[in-house]
Amino acid sequence: MLVAGAGASALTLEWAMSLLLTHPEAMRKLRAEIDSQVGDDQRLTNESDLPKLPYLKCVINETLRLYPVLSLMLPHSSSRACTVGGFEVPAGTVLMANLWAMHRDPKVWEDPDEFRPERIEAALNEPKCSKFAPIGIGRRSCPGAGMGVHIASLTAGVLVQCFEWEKIGLQEDMEYVISTSLRKKIPSQALCTPRQHLLHLLSHV
Q: Name one Pfam family in it (predicted).
């Protein structure tokens, strides 16, 4: 659980920062939220701040919608025969849900390939929401999910709070490769500059 949670949070953080670099308005909105709720020069973002940062939560969850750590859910087995979407599924069939397809289905999500953090809040508030399941759903969902999302959220918050970020080159490469997880084909590179009024905090980290 610890290895999976830590690895998933690192991948999610890389995708989230890449998306924020290519969507500067989202970066500005997130920084404004953090500066407003945490304060911009007295302390670093910590765990107790996360409930007060709904846009940060939306950024991480929208990242997981677009780039789930696993594009295919771990295998499950049908406990009894059933019909799904017109297909007969015998008992004992090994099933692997395609999370990538679910999260980018234009019949479910408007402009599914676009990064829109604001949309996630409404989706998560839907009763019995099953269209967003980056770490599985129900009793068999990933036991390390909470830790992974928590670490990614907190780290992204601190990075956005403390540094100015710039792309290297004209655009960020968002190509991916699918192995055991959904990874960037070319690892992210960016320029970061400490925000001057936070140097006194960074010098003690």
A: p450
